[in-house]
């Protein structure tokens, strides 16, 4: 998926059915590139305008502030990752499946997130960089995870514990270890060292093996 097609896919997730002109798409694409490379604080609307090939005033006709421009980029991503409707779909795809074993569950979860981050790595990078500094990004993430994901995740872990497949640690601990391990692999490949010669699917397989063997009931 190209960067422009990836951007258009995210923008289509907005619920207000707003139509974006090609000029506006260029602004958003330039903002994604600039925020991703330099961070929000170090980026200027003048720089974004030059990269998009528009006057700076054109940006402010669409977005009142640089902050509004940032949110217009990240909000569709949050919708895709954690919006109520999509979060329910994600829960259904991952947690409402009859798995033969724990490895199948981890594989489904890991590759689901791998495909998403691979297609939207620049915007994910912006989200990770900025989520600690903007409550507008952090609070919906926490709320939607708690409301739509956590209980189903916990129930799945307990099911595999009762089947004597994984260790009898607190489910919250196991959830933390799974999320941190998968997220850490994706973070390393796509955001921290994207220039490295990664064998992406092999790295995901090793990550899955690490989790399955590490959590297996001995």
TrEMBL record:
The keyword Phosphoprotein does not apply. One of its GO terms (molecular function) is DNA binding. SUPFAM superfamilies: Homeodomain-like, Tetracyclin repressor-like, C-terminal domain. Keywords: DNA-binding, Repressor. PROSITE patterns: HTH_TETR_2. Pfam families: TetR_N (PF00440). The keyword DNA-binding applies. Residues 44-63 bind DNA. The lineage of its organism: Bacteria, Bacillati, Bacillota, Bacilli, Bacillales. This is TetR/AcrR family transcriptional regulator. InterPro entries: Homeodomain-like_sf, HTH-type_Tx_Regulator, HTH_TetR, Tet_transcr_reg_TetR-rel_C_sf. Residues 21-81 form the HTH tetR-type domain. Gene3D superfamilies: Tetracycline Repressor, domain 2.
């Amino acid at each position: 998926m190209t960067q422009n097609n990836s951007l258009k896919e995210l923008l289509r997730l907005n619920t207000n059915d707003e139509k974006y002109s090609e000029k506006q798409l260029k602004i958003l694409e330039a903002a994604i590139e600039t925020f991703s490379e330099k961070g929000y604080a170090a980026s200027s609307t003048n720089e974004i305008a030059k990269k998009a090939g528009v006057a700076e005033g054109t940006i402010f006709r669409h977005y009142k502030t640089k902050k509004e421009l940032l949110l217009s980029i990240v909000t569709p991503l949050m919708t895709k990752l954690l919006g109520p409707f999509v979060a329910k779909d994600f829960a259904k795809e991952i947690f409402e499946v009859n798995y033969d074993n724990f490895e199948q569950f981890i594989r489904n979860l890991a590759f689901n997130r791998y495909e998403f981050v691979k297609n939207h790595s620049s915007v994910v990078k912006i989200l990770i960089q900025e989520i600690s500094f903007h409550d507008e990004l952090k609070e919906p993430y926490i709320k939607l995870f708690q409301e739509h994901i956590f209980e189903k995740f916990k129930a799945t872990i307990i099911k595999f514990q009762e089947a004597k497949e994984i260790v009898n640690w607190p489910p919250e601990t196991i959830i933390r270890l799974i999320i941190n391990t998968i997220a850490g692999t994706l973070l390393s490949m796509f955001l921290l060292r994207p220039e490295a010669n990664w064998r992406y699917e092999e790295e995901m397989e090793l990550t899955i093996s690490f989790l399955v063997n590490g959590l297996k009931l001995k």
